[in-house]
Amino acid sequence: MKSLPSILLTGLAIFALYSCGNEQKSPKENPLKNLEKEVMAIHDEAMPMNSSLIRTAEDLKSMMAADSINTVDRAAEINQTIEALESAEEAMMSWMNTYRVPAKADENEKKAYLEAEKEKISKVKIQMETALKKGEELKASLNSQ
């Protein structure tokens, strides 16, 4: 009977040592995976704006075609806004077409790539938000005339 407690104690000690010595990072703790998730989260926030960018640009083009614009300055403003909307949509498409985490790169190279891509997609998101806000404000202004 005296050996049972000592066996349990020895087994517990071995388990504790084994557990401490073999700590592995879970996927939640992997900095590269977390950084990649951050990049994709920004993309996922911005992507739904694409349809609004396209719709707003089309609405502004229809307003121009309806000949309801009576000044050259207003027409120029509409054209600039349409260009900004289309450029923002194209920026997202371009980013998506070029985003590829290099498979054969080391951790430092992947980290640098992901940080650069996070910066790029953040700028694309801001570009999309800015163009969409301007387009919606301009549409509202034209509709109220």
What report would you give on this structure?
There is one protein chain. The protein is mainly α. The chain is 80% helix and 0% strand. It contains 5 helices and no strands. The chain has helices at residues 3-21, 31-46, 49-65, 72-98, 107-143. It starts with a helix and ends with a helix.
Shape descriptor reads elongated
- In terms of quaternary structure, what is this? single chain
Gyration radius from CA atoms, angstroms? 27 Å
Helix content: over 70%
Low-confidence stretches: 15-19
Number of helices: 5
The gist of it:
The chain is an all-alpha fold and 145 residues long. It has 5 helices and no strands.
For the structure shown, list the relevant keywords.
single chain, 145 residues, mainly alpha
List the helices and strands and how they pair.
Layout: H1 3-21, H2 31-46, H3 49-65, H4 72-98, H5 107-143
Helix pairs in contact: 2-5, 3-4, 3-5, 4-5
